[in-house]
Every structure is written in structure tokens, then in C-alpha cells.
Fold this sequence. Notes:
Blueprint: E1 10-15, H1 19-31, E2 36-41, H2 44-52, E3 61-64, H3 73-82, E4 91-95, H4 100-108, E5 113-116, H5 121-138
Parallel strand pairs: 1-2, 1-3, 3-4, 4-5
Helix pairs in contact: 1-5, 2-3
Amino acid sequence: MNAFSDDRTYSLLLVEDDPADALLIEDALVERSTARTIDHVTDGVAALEHLRDPSKDRPDLIVLDLNMPRMNGRELLAVLKEDGDLGSIPVVVLTTSTAPDDIEDAYRQHANAYVTKPMNLDEFMRSVQDIDSFFLDTAATPPRD
């Protein structure tokens, strides 16, 4: 049974600098109509500030782009997975990069999944919904603190 079978709200942190992609991702998630909150930040520095802010709830899932200003997704992933408090949050890399080095590096840094953004709009929406469905409906997740 999944940890989200109770009445609590599923929380997702979207780390994406492209406003158009962020809007599409949020639209795809809302289209699934599952109870969730979506917080959006545009780079790794803002993500760490959000995650370390005691007034903010810890997300159940982080969806992370790789190519961003200030602190990119590669750097953020390394920091997250080395952090004892944040390292257990599942992270899905959702990016345009198909470079084998990026894929290998993401898994080496303990990403939970690596998904390449499809160029086709319908496929893009379906990919985001599949990520959401897997982590909400299928994967067992640790309880919140």
C-alpha cells in the first residue's frame, strides 16, 4: 500500500527554470486531478532554500531539470543525496538532455529516475503524468517526519 492512501496532500517540488516547461508540467499534474501541492523554484539555490526552510513542508517528490542558472540540477542532486535530512526524498530528473554522460552521472548521484522530455506535447504531458502516477499510485514511500 502506498503512503498516500490517507487523506494527506501529496507534495511535489518542481525545480525548473524554463517557464513554458514549468507551466506544461504543472498543467499535466493538475490534469490528473490528484490532491497535491506543487511548489516551483527556478534553480538549485532556490530549491535548497525552499527545502531547508522550516516553515515549508518537505516534498514527497522532487522533479528536477539539469540545465539551470546559479546551481544546476547536477550540483543540486549531489547536495541533496549527501544531505542526511533531504537524501531520502525521491528525485526524478526531467530534462532535454539525452547525453549518456548526463544519464550516467544522474544515476551515479542517486537520482531515482531519469526521464528525457519528449518534444511532442502529448508525449510530454503523458511522461509527466506517468512520473506522477508512479510515485503517487505505485511506489512505496517513506512516511513524512
